[in-house]
Amino acid sequence: MPETVFRVDQTKSMREQEVPGHNRWHPDIPAAASVRPGDVFRIDCKDWTDGQVRNDDSANDVRDMVLDHNHMLSGPIEVEGAEPGDLLVVDYLDLGPAHGGAPAVGPEAGQGWGYTGIFAKSNGGGFLTDHFPDPGKAIWDFQGKYATSRHLPGVRIASNVHAGLAGCAPSAELLAEWNRREQALIDTDPQRVPPLALPPLPDNALLGTLGGSDVERVAREAARTVPPREHGGNVDIKNLSIGSRVLYPVYVPGAKFSIGDLHFAQGDGEISFCGAVEMGGYVDVHVDLIKDGVRKYKATMPIFQPGRHEPRYDDFVSFIGISVDEAGAQHYMNATIAYKRACLQAIDYLTQFGWTGEQAYLILCAAPIEGRVSGIVDIPNACCSLYLPTGIFDVDIRPGHDGPARVDRGQCATAS
């Protein structure tokens, strides 16, 4: 087993670890460990909420979640010799849930189980929050490379374990640019629910081992971890799994690489705000450097080579959406609206087999669906498609002459 350079006791909050991680991006957060190009090492991770979600049949924890506390990142890891303008090469050699040699099921996410959530519109929302404004939750039990949920009967998904969030620390200049442009967006509709973006917020900021007079300043400046940005960040790409290689732009000396938000499984888009099978766990990585790689490859964003670990289903029912919204209004080449319409059509389809709308929403979040931009040139309609693997269901969901066989499948966990 590789040396663990960032260790997490899953029974404790990230704030209580011997070396705490962080939940904001800032160049002044100190490195927690140092490695060299060519090293192979392990990083332990808490689940993204730091244990706020429990293995029970209520969504009160999702409803009441303190979002300012998230995401919990392990790191930063300094890579010796890394300089601004380099590309940090990260090979994901292995990823897995936290239980390891512990009992099969423990109290923390990753210890034999994970979860998928629908966030309330008033607390984070999600891609389909206007249709599903209330909180919901599904607990998944891990069985080797597969998972089933008591809240989603009749579904068994294969794992495509990956890290949802990783990247190098931003430079002070890049951080200022993030904050400028995101605040400008917020200012266009400052009262919107959910908000258009999340500005820096000192409340609940965790800044690793940073101490002294710098803490207050850094907490005011540090960027939230919610969106993807130029450095990578919360990209939630299900293909960044075992065997993948990612090239991250370096912005500060030492790179200061951090990682978290591990997923047991996820579909394209992670269409709920908590739309993967979330867990704590471990990541084994190999690192290297491509000197001056940003210039050599014009790499203004991360570049990656996907691994081959993800499940390969070969039979699908697929749904199409175009850029005409639910009210019938025409939009010009809007792929977001087109994908939303494909998702809503898939949800309506699954309800004919007995799953509720909330259950169907959670299935599309966690299952390895494939989302594609199928047409982006034929004005005025973008066309997106959603490929739903039939093999995850205990019934044949393919359309036929006899119509769907409707079975009562209960409901996901809801809030009281």
UniProtKB/TrEMBL annotation:
Source organism, top-level taxon: Bacteria
SUPFAM superfamilies, per the entry: Acetamidase/Formamidase-like
Keywords for this protein: Hydrolase
Name this protein carries in UniProt: Formamidase
Taxonomic lineage from the root: Bacteria, Bacillati, Actinomycetota, Actinomycetes, Pseudonocardiales
Enzyme class label: hydrolase
Assigned EC number: 3.5.1.49
Species in which this protein is naturally found: Actinomycetospora aurantiaca
One Gene Ontology term of the molecular function aspect: formamidase activity
InterPro entries attached to this UniProt entry: FmdA_AmdA, FormamaseFmdA
